[in-house]
C-alpha cells in the first residue's frame, strides 16, 4: 500500500472524517435556520392542502394535526437555548485551580461545610446529634 492510499483522519467541527466522511465538506448537520425555513415551508404546504376537492373531513383533521405537531416542534426548536449557553453556565464558571470537594465524604465525616451544622440541620440529614462525637450540642437557638 502506498503512502497516498492511507487516509489521515481530519477533524471538522468535532467530527472525524473516519466516523463521517462527509464532515470534511460540510454535509454533517443542519443548522437551526435551515430547519426553521424548511419547517415553515412545510407548514405552508400542509395548510394549502386544506383547499382541495375532498368532501370528507378526515383529511382535514389529519392535515391540521400534522401541521400543529410541526408548528409545536418548530417553536420548541426556535426558543430552546443554544447548547453552548447551557455548557457555559454549568462548566466554565469555575476558577482554573478549582477542585470540587468530595461532598459524600464531607457529609459522612461531618467535615468541611458539614462541620458546623445545627442539631436541626443534622436531623434533616437523618443524623442523630447525640451520636456525633465531640459535639456538645449546637442548637439553632444558641447561634
UniProtKB/TrEMBL annotation:
Record InterPro entries: DUF2631
Protein name: DUF2631 domain-containing protein
Lineage: Bacteria, Bacillati, Actinomycetota, Actinomycetes, Mycobacteriales
Key words of the record: Membrane, Transmembrane, Transmembrane helix
Listed transmembrane segments: 61-79
Originating species: Corynebacterium antarcticum
Domain of life: Bacteria
Amino acid at each position: 500500500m502506498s503512502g497516498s492510499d492511507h487516509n489521515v483522519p481530519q477533524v471538522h467541527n468535532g467530527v472525524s472524517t473516519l466516523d463521517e466522511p462527509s464532515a470534511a465538506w460540510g454535509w454533517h448537520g443542519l443548522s437551526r435556520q435551515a430547519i426553521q425555513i424548511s419547517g415553515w415551508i412545510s407548514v405552508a404546504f400542509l395548510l394549502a392542502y386544506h383547499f382541495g376537492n375532498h368532501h370528507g373531513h378526515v383529511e382535514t383533521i389529519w392535515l391540521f394535526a400534522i401541521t400543529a405537531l410541526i408548528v409545536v416542534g418548530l417553536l420548541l426548536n426556535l426558543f430552546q437555548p443554544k447548547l453552548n449557553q447551557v455548557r457555559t453556565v454549568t462548566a466554565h464558571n469555575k476558577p482554573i485551580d478549582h477542585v470540587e470537594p468530595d461532598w459524600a465524604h464531607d457529609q459522612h465525616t461531618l467535615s468541611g461545610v458539614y462541620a458546623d451544622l445545627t442539631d436541626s440541620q443534622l436531623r434533616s440529614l437523618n443524623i442523630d446529634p447525640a451520636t456525633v462525637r465531640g459535639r456538645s450540642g449546637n442548637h439553632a437557638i444558641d447561634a
